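Exercise 7.
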Amino acid sequence: MSVREFVVLGTASQVPTRHRNHNGYLLRWDGEGILFDPGEGTQRQMLRAGVAAHDINRICVTHFHGDHSLGLAGVIQRINLDRVPHPVTAHYPASGQRFFDRLRYATAYRETVALREEPVAADGALARGSSYVLEARRLSHPVESFGYRLTEPDGRRMVPELLARHGIKGPDVGRIQREGQLGGVTLDDVSEHKPGQRFAFVMDTRLCPGVDELAAGCDMLVIESTFLDEDEALATDHGHLTAGQAARTARDAGVRHLVLTHFSQRYSDPQEFERQARAAGFDGELTIAADLVRVPLPKRS
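Solution. The predicted structure, written as tokens, is:
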């Protein structure tokens, strides 16, 4: 049975707090796990959340600020210590190669796992999995930063009423799915278009075209909202978003489930992010991320 869920490991920006670890997020997508932005303490948060090194197939780093990457050293060494039986691919801004090298070889350890480095230098497709295409888009931050998006290919959904109308049942259902037609009846005659799921991960950035491109039509958008709206000038100056900006982006993009995260330690009431997101007009599912929560991706009907 396929599982698609988003596991939050940490939600703090810049520095951890008593209740929020540095960033860290795992997306479970069918049989694969994609680890995003492992900040300091991610290895311990994985333990607390029930995430094993064996669950990681890809690592995607948006940029090389410490709260998004200092955990790489521990995670990479844990992958090797546990002798993960499959290759692991790492994506990160190509301009930060020196930082990745330092983190990968921060201390002595024995390499037992094939870690494939696939740095990101421009917008476009990065990889094709069995059930998704992984893409990157450039964001706007004081250091080079990329956001990531997974898109499941569109498919077809069999319609029982149409199958019955054409007298197709039993093994013939599988046959028409495989071959595209049966006895003059086409697959289009007995099925309907099924759009694939879309997921986007947007961290440190100002509003920019890349944000809109990543968010467009997403079933789930995970996006930073470091500041509240009253501090919009500060957010823009530091290359971040406010809760209202993130919510308006999601509203205009037709996002079904919005996950806000990466909160500044200056705010004591996380519910204020929810109030501002709703005030901005987003009326879909909304999660104000907290450490160690699991958020299922919305199912396609």
